[in-house]
């Protein structure tokens, strides 16, 4: 028999049960560690773990080593902090994307990047499936699944936590049975996720929206009551909507955000308590810590007030909300996103300058802003001598501006001696 016959080689491969590969998003925690042997037992896949450093402060090489000890056939660890900041965080900042006016979208921004990199790894390793550890009632499952379906609809998606009913004690027992190393540390009363742009905390005592968050929910920010008693002033430089410098020094995105997290966090800036509307139809109480995000969004918004026209600024608020919803709902890799960002990039081309921020007792207050593209003209705004504003032209402008309302009042509202009904007082008479 021809030992190099293609059909024969396929037959040998099948007889040896050559397993297909799956890429598993792996954090090194209990759940994802247990998933490595569980996926092998349940589906027969050879598991390749995938760990991404987005600035969560963990040693990804140690996590990689743990994955290999846990039974992974290979383990991938990637530092994607620069990718995250330059291609996800900063575009969202330029767009002014804050979900429901509070959440700077740190976790939501990280998920599409991780999913995209997992798809790339699946192609490189000829994997047939991808897996994540998201629950069935959160938003992250949507962000992962939609990205997978968009970029690689041929890949099978496995979500073990949605399938099993494994409690923590059961997971610990499973880990012991399979010789999976588990760090001996007390279980956190919270569910925590973090990256360079923010830290999200939920569950436990936070599930009652009436209860004030305890201090142990915070790690990045000082209690404003014990923060320094003197304010600190910082200056942030922007170029076309992107932060490029801090306190007079040019800085790349990652070190700039790291520095802001430390400086603003020291003053208690960046605490967010939010009851938000999840995509899956429930309200959830979340606590966020995002010192750099809060400061950057505040500074960016103030610089826009100087550099954008009235019409551009007002329309931008609509785009900002759509952009935030798009990110939150896991639609980063959509044509709609490309359309929105085309506007954002054009809208931001003159948003360059420096913003001075006062940090004090939990507050970031903008106290100065300047730009070579500023639309603020002191000679027009001043009430002092030397003003360029032609006050005599105001009378004609006002007459034209109010002409429509004056006409309507004359021929409709006041016809027949009718007066104006005040809001809330119609349909009855005041007999006091």
Write a brief structural summary.
This protein is 42% helix and 19% strand. It is an alpha/beta fold and 432 residues long.
For the record, the CATH architecture of the largest domain stands as 3-Layer(aba) Sandwich
Name of the level-1 CATH class of the largest domain: Alpha Beta
Q: Biggest β-sheet, characterized?
A: 5 strands, parallel
What is the domain tally?
Answer: 2
Task: Characterise this structure.
With 432 residues, the protein is an alpha/beta fold. Helix 4 (81-95) crosses helix 5 and helix 11 packs antiparallel against helix 12. It has helices spanning 6-15, 30-43, 60-70, 81-95, 106-124, 140-151, 160-163, 168-177, 253-266, 291-307, 310-328, 335-347, 378-381, 393-401, 403-413; strands spanning 21-25, 46-53, 74-79, 129-131, 156-158, 191-195, 198-202, 232-239, 242-246, 249-250, 271-277, 283-289, 353-360, 363-370. The protein has two domains: 6-177, Rossmann fold (3-Layer(aba) Sandwich), CATH 3.40.50; 193-308 and 350-370, Argininosuccinate synthetase, chain A, domain 2 (Alpha-Beta Complex), CATH 3.90.1260. The chain is elongated. It starts with 5 loop residues before the first helix and ends in a 19-residue tail after the last helix. The strands form three sheets. The protein has a five-stranded parallel beta sheet, sandwiched between helices. It is built from 15 helices and 14 strands. A hairpin with a 2-residue loop joins strand 8 and strand 9.
């Amino acid at each position: 028999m021809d030992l190099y016959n293609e059909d024969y080689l396929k037959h040998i491969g099948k007889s040896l049960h050559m397993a297909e590969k799956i890429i598993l998003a792996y954090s090194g925690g209990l759940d994802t560690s247990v998933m490595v042997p569980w996926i092998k037992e349940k589906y027969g896949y050879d598991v390749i773990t995938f760990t991404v450093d987005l600035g969560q402060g963990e040693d990804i090489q140690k996590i990689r080593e743990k994955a290999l000890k846990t039974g992974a056939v290979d383990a991938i660890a990637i530092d994607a902090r620069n990718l995250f900041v330059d291609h996800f965080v900063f575009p969202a900042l330029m767009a002014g994307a804050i979900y429901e006016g509070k959440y700077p979208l740190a976790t939501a921004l990280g998920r599409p990047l991780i999913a995209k990199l997992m798809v790339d790894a699946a192609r490189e390793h000829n994997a047939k499936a991808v897996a994540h550890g998201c629950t069935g009632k959160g938003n992250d499952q949507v962000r992962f699944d939609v990205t997978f379906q968009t970029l690689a609809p041929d890949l099978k998606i496995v979500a073990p936590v949605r399938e099993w009913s494994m409690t923590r004690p059961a997971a610990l027992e499973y880990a012991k049975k399979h010789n999976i190393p588990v760090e001996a540390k007390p279980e956190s009363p919270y569910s925590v996720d973090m990256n360079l742009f923010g830290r999200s905390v939920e569950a436990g005592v936070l599930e009652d929206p009436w209860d004030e968050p305890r201090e142990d929910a915070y790690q990045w920010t000082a209690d404003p009551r014990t923060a320094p008693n003197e304010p600190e002033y910082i200056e942030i430089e922007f170029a076309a909507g992107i932060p490029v410098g801090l306190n007079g020094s040019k800085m790349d995105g990652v070190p700039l955000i790291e520095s802001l997290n430390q400086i603003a966090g020291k003053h208690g800036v960046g605490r967010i308590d939010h009851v938000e509307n999840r995509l899956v139809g429930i309200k959830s109480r979340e606590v966020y810590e995002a010192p750099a995000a809060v400061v950057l969004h505040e500074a960016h918004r103030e610089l826009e007030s100087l550099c954008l026209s009235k019409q551009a600024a007002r329309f931008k608020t609509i785009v900002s909300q759509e952009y935030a919803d798009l990110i939150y709902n896991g639609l980063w890799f959509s044509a709609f996103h490309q359309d929105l960002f085309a506007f954002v990039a054009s809208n931001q081309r003159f948003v360059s300058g420096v913003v001075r921020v006062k940090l004090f007792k939990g507050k970031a207050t903008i106290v100065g802003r300047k730009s070579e593209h500023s639309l603020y003209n002191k000679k027009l705004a001043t009430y002092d001598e030397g003003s360029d504003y032609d006050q005599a032209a105001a009378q004609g402008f006002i007459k034209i501006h109010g002409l429509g309302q004056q006409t309507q009042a004359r021929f409709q509202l006041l016809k027949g001696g009718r007066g104006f009904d005040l809001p809330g007082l119609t349909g009855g008479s005041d007999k006091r």
